[in-house]
Amino acid sequence: MELNNRLFKGVIILIGILALASLVAMLQMRLDKPVFLDHYYDLRVHEDGNYRQEFRLTYITNVHDRRVVNHVEFPEHPYIRVSATEQGFMNSFSWDSSNQQPPGEIHGRYSVRTIHCQIGEIPGVEEIDGAVVETARVFFNDGTEMDVHIGELHFYSFGSEDRPFDSVSSSGSSDGSSSSRYRAKEDMTLISVKNQMLERFEHRLDLKINDHVIDGIDGLEIKENDHLIIRSKLYPGSDPLDVYAMVDIHPELYFKRADGKIGSMRFYNIDSIYHGFNFMDLYRYLDAREVL
Amino acid sequence: MIDGYRKIFWGVFITTFSINLGVVKILPAFIGWMVVASGISMLEDRSESVDYQSTKTISHILVAITFVGGLLNFLGILSLSSHVMLLFYPLVIMVVELTLLHRILQGSIIHLELMENKAARDLYIGKDRTYIILSGISIVLVTVSMFLNLETAAFFAAIIALFTRIYLLTAIRSLGKENWGDEDEMEGIDYDTEHTSV
Fold first, then answer.
1. Is A62 helix (H, G, I), strand (E, B) or coil?
2. Is residue B22 scored above 70 in pLDDT?
C-alpha cells in the first residue's frame, strides 16, 4: 500500500508539473492580437471590369479566437473596395449556425486563417494603376476592427493590348519552381525586367530568361517563332520571417519591337502562397516578429 | 458496507454514462458524485476503524465543482470561453476524481487489513495500483492534447479514461461482494465465498 501512495503522489506531482508548464507555455505563446503575414502581391485590375481579381490575406490568431473577419478596407486608398470573407466565396450557406467552428487550420496554440478577397468595381482604373497598399483595416464579426500591416499590394491596370508573344505552356511545382514558355510573333530585342518587389527577393530568387540571368538579358535578340522560356525558383530562405511570406509578383519584361517601339509584358511565375504550416515554425515566426 | 459500495458503484456509473434527453442532461455528473458521497457516508457509518472524513470532503468538493461546471456548460460559457484557466477544468476534475477514488480503495484496503483478509487486501492493492497508473496515463494525455490541440492524443485519452472507468466499476462491484461482516446486509446478495481468491 505504501508503494501505491508513493505512486499516487508521483502521478499527482507529474501532472502538476506538466499542467504548470503547459499553463506557462500557453500564456507565453498567447497572442495579444491577430498577426497578419507579409503579403507581396501584384494585383491586376482589368480595364473592362469583367474579371475581378481574387487574392488571399492570411493571419495567425489564438486557437480559441472565434471571431472572423467580414470586411476589409484600405485606408491609404479608400476607393479600392474588396469583398472579404473567411468562408470562401463558393462556400454554401448553412442554416445550422449553432455549432459552427471558425474556419482555419489549427496548429497547436494557433489558428491560421485565410481571408478571401475579391476586388470590387473601381470607378477609374487609371487611378488604381500603380497604387500600393501596405495597411488594411480589418473588421471582425464581433464589431471590433484593427489596422494591420499586410506587406505590399501593388495594383496595376491590365488591358487587352496586342502582345507580341503567344503563350505555349506553363508549369509550376510546390517547391517554388515554375516555367513558362512563349513563342515570339515577331523579331524583338529584350531590354530588362522590372518589378518594385524583385529586389526584396533577389537573395532567394533564381530567375532566368532563356537561361540568362535577368541582369544579362539586355540586347538579347529573339527572332520570330523563337521560344522565350522564363524559369524561376523561389527558395524558402533562411530568415524565419521569409518562411511565411506570401508572394505572387508579376515582373514586367521590357523589349524593343521590330518597329522600334518599346513594349512590355507581365509574367506570372513567381509565387509562393501555399505554405505547409506547423506549430513550431509558427512559433519561430511569431517569435521573430516579436509579438510573443 | 455493501449498500455503500453499491451506491458508489451507481454514482460512478452515472458520472461515466450520463443520460441525455435531447439537449437536457437528466443525470448530470454532479448527481453521480452526490450518490458517491452518500455511499461514502454509509461506509463511514459502518466502519469505525477507518477514517472517511477527508474522503467525504473530497467528494463534496467534486460535487461542487461538477455542479458549477455543469451550470457553466448549460449556459454555454464553458464551451465558448477562451479563458486559459477554464481549459484546465477537465484536468482539475480528473485529478480530484483520481484522489477520491484512490482514497475509497485505500479505505477498503485498510478495512480488509483490519479484518485480516490478506488475500482480498492484496487483490485490491493491485487494483488500486492499476487504477492509479491508467488514470495517470489518461490525465497526462489530456494535458498534452489540451496544450497542443492534438485530436489523436485526446482520442487515446478518452479511450483509456473509459477503460479505466470500466475497470474501476468492476473493482467497486467486486468490493460490494466481499465479506464485510455485516450479515444483515448479506441477505439477498449473490455472495461468492471464493471471490477474493479469484
1. strand
2. no
**Which one has a higher pLDDT value, B26 or A253?**
A253
Q: In chain A, what is the greatest distance between 2 CA atoms, to the nearest angstrom?
A: 99
> B82, A4: Cβ pair inside 8 Å?
no
- Is B185 part of a structural domain of the chain? no
CB B118 within 8 A of CB A61: no
Q: How many domains does chain B have?
A: 1
Could you tell me the pLDDT band of residue B46, with boundaries at 50, 70 and 90?
A: confident
Q: CB–CB of B132 and A19 under 8 A?
A: no
- Which residues of chain B from 48 to 107 reach within 8 Å of chain A, CB to CB? 80, 82, 84, 87-88, 91, 95, 98-99, 102, 106
The reply to whether B18 falls in a domain is: yes
What the block records as the C-alpha cell of A136 is 488594411
Residue A172: left (phi > 0), alpha (psi -120 to 50), or beta?
A: beta
- In chain A the domains, ranked by start, together with CATH numbers, are 35-90+101-158 (2.60.40), 165-271 (2.60.40)
Dump the DSSP string for B75-97: TTHHHH---TTGGGHHHHHHHHH
Cβ(B56)–Cβ(B104) under 8 Å? no
Chain A interface includes B114 (CB < 8 A): no
Instruction: Note whether A187 and A224 are within 8 A (CB).
Output: yes
Where does the pLDDT of residue A93 fall: very low under 50, low under 70, confident under 90, or very high at 90 and above?
low
Is B146 domain-assigned?
yes
- Split at pLDDT 50, 70, 90, the class of B184 is very low
Structural domain boundaries enclosing B97: 2-180
Q: Which residues of A touch B148 (CB under 8 A)?
A: 108-109, 279
Q: Contact B143/A22, CB-based, under 8 Å? A: yes
Residues A24-80: tens digit of each pLDDT: 999 999 999 999 999 999 998 887 767 778 999 999 999 989 899 999 999 999 988
The pLDDT value given to residue B198: 26
User: Contact B84/A65, CB-based, under 8 Å?
Assistant: no
Which chain B residues contact residue A12 at CB under 8 A?
95, 98-99
Would you say residue B187 lies in a domain?
no
Say what the ipTM of the complex is: 0.86
Q: Does B149 touch chain A (CB under 8 A)?
A: yes
**Neighboring chain A residues of B109 at a CB cutoff of 8 Å:** 1
Q: Does A7 touch chain B (CB under 8 A)?
A: yes
Average pLDDT value over all residues in chain A: 89
